[in-house]
Amino acid sequence: MRAIVTVLGKDRVGIMSAVCALLAQHNVNILDISQTILQDYFTMVMLVDASGCDMPFADLAALLDREGKDRDLSIRAQREDIFNAMHRI
Amino acid sequence: MINTNEIFDTIHMIDQQHLDVRTITMGISLLDCADADPNAACRKIYDKITRQAEHLVATGEAIEKEFGIPIVNKRISVTPMALVAGASETGSYVPFAVALDNAAKAVGVNFIGGFSALVQKGATRADRKLIAAIPEALARTDLVCASVNVGSTKAGINMNAVGVMGRTIKECAQLTADQGGFGCAKLVVFCNAVEDNPFMAGAFHGPGEGDCVINVGVSGPGVVYHALQDVKGQSFDVVAETIKKTAFRVTRMGQLVAQEASRRLGVPFGIVDLSLAPTPAIGDSVARILEEMGLETCGTHGTTAALALLNDAVKKGGVMASSHVGGLSGAFIPVSEDEGMIAAARSGVLHLDKLEAMTCVCSVGLDMIAVPGDTSAATISAIIADEAAIGMVNSKTTAVRIIPAPGKVVGDTVEFGGLLGSAPVMPVHPQSAEAFVARGGRIPAPMQSLKN
Questions:
Q1: B68 vs A86: CB contact, 8 Å cut-off?
Q2: Is B156's pLDDT higher than 90?
């Protein structure tokens, strides 16, 4: 199952490494990454494959959310279907 | 891959523009729970609801987490209770409402609708008993919603029922006087009620429906409002297109959630109701959309035209986004639940007569309106009759959810809290309609041709 992970927040050292490490730890494969800095604001979008994830997807999303809050970032994982439904016919 | 802008568009809609799925409503038929012994019937009702809806809330929450879309309410609608309770030999139907309330609490939903009767042409003994039980049922339960259909385009208006409902609403207000007449917020009087409405307080699972079904109500006034801010000053052609595109996206999300819920629960998907349902939160208001079109305050001249465009564009945009559209579908204008409507009513610009005109073109009717506590039952009945006439003649659903707030006068505010918000008490015409309502009988069904 494919999902979109988005990370938003003030730029600082180690954001990408922390998110990637967490995903790797739970066997989530990163398929594509796009990342920019907009006025000191870190903006990252990842397309990931969570079919091999070692925990239910909702738990992974909650884990990322908590991880983000600890670092003052907004990190969310959402199933890709929601974006396809809203933006593709 | 979806591009970054589209992804952040969706996230902004959810984070800043109050995009959500307003409700997943499970419709459950209780026709097979009828029993001559009322206690046995209540037991069957409780057992069936708790069995069918056991996983409803957990499933809704799981979908919410996985898709990152808030699903605000999980609810249940059931067969109009008069059809089920009619078989039981009992004088009072209040225990049936208590059974519904207990079942709703056991499965964790926040409302259960269907303490209802369909009396557009005539009332059975069971219908009369059900209506008589409504005030006590709503006062004694927390989650039960009641509705009564008093008219239809095919049957006309049952004026005897309209008369009874005026008195019933007064009684509801009196029995819940300590909560500002809150009982009335859980009671809707319909004309042309639909059988698959997922929104409360008027939801019931119609007799033409299957055993169990999942209906979803989407929302998103904030998203439409925000989209219109980008087309300031442009023509109505652009306004209509913008609303259609926005409604399409919102509905696609609702359709996805509905299909997912249906699959996980193993229950057939019914409909998506593409309604713009406001909340008292800032930025989630239908009135503000109308004002964004160029009106200084909602309720001034031009409001009806603005609402007509909005209502129509929402339907046109949403209809292609869903395999089955139903329910009420359109723009809701509940006064107490809409920050902009509350402000407009407080300022005296929005009054009952204008709201009545707006109900000719919106999706439902006079909704969540507080009037002075000393408003007579006949005046309330007359308001219901007017609203039912609009629905009957225009072949649309209309409804009245009105609160004669005990002890309150024009200028006061009734606080309900949560999604039900706060209602400024609005003036009614003081002239009597007593003799009009006292006539009773039926207003015949209207002509369906020679339409002028």
A1: no
A2: yes
Instruction: Select the residue from A48, A84, A86 to test the B interface by mutation, using most B Cβ atoms within 10 A.
Output: A86
In the prediction, which pLDDT does B1 show?
65
Distance from CA of A40 to the nearest CA of B (A): 17
* pLDDT of A11 above 90: no
Q: Is the CB of residue B96 less than 8 Å from the CB of residue B140?
A: no
Which of A31, A60, A82, A84 is most worth mutating to test chain B (most B CB atoms within 10 A of its CB)? A82
Q: What is the mean pLDDT of residues B59-86?
A: 96
With beta carbons under 8 A apart, name residues in chain A contacting B59.
Answer: none
Helix (H, G, I), strand (E, B) or coil at A85: helix
Cα separation, B399 vs B382, in Å, equals 13
Are the C-beta atoms of residues B41 and B35 closer than 8 Å to each other? yes
Q: Using CB atoms within 10 A of its CB, is residue B426 exposed (0-12), middle (13-18) or buried (19+)?
A: buried
Q: Do A84 and B9 touch (CB under 8 A)?
A: no
Tens digit of each residue's pLDDT (9 = 90 or more) over A26-69? 999 999 999 888 778 889 999 999 999 999 999 999 999 999 99
Asked if residues B402 and B388 have their Cβ atoms less than 8 Å apart, the reply is no
Q: Which of B148, B146, B149, B150 is nearest to B182 (CA)?
A: B146
Q: Chain B residues within 8 A (CB-CB) of chain A?
A: 1-2, 4, 6-11, 62, 65-69, 249, 252-253, 255-256
Please tell me the number of Cα atoms within 13 Å of B50 on its side-chain side.
13
Tokens of B147: 């509705």
Residues of A with CB under 8 A from a CB of B: 4, 6, 32, 34, 43, 45, 47, 57-58, 61-62, 76-88
pLDDT at B251 over 90: yes
Task: Tell me the β-bridge partners of B214.
Answer: B26, B269
A80·B2 Cβ contact <8 A: yes
Residue with tokens 């000191």: A40
* Partner residue opposite A81 with nearest CB, options B6, B9, B256: B256
> Does A58 contact B66 at a Cβ distance shorter than 8 Å?
yes
Question: B449: which 2 tokens?
Answer: 């041709």
Residue-level length of chain A:
89
pLDDT band at B83 (very low <50, low <70, confident <90, very high): very high
Do residue A82 and residue B68 have CB atoms under 8 angstroms apart?
A: yes
